[in-house]
Amino acid sequence: MALTKEKIVDNIYDQVGLSKNQSRRVVGSLLEIIKQTLEKGESLLISGFGKFVVKNKAARKGRNPQTKEDLDLRARKVVSFRTSGVLRGKINHKG
Predict the structure, then answer these.
(1) 78 and 92: one domain?
(2) Are residues 92 and 51 located together in one domain of the fold?
(3) What is the mean pLDDT of residues 30-48?
């Protein structure tokens, strides 16, 4: 089961006591800040949660697995996420 944006809004509504509209605006604003930061190529560190890092991938050769045709894959940027030690410990029931 996936955690959706609407479920996050509902959790903020239930736990913080903001109205649904206020909760929706908070979630939207937070996600917009995250997107803008990553679009600039900056890393985003959330203490106790993890770090989002924009990495450059070089152009490379690839292959279409269905047709076996060789392809040239262009250079691009990707976002990677590394969990904090705190979160990793909780995921592995050590915290």
Answers:
(1) yes
(2) yes
(3) 96
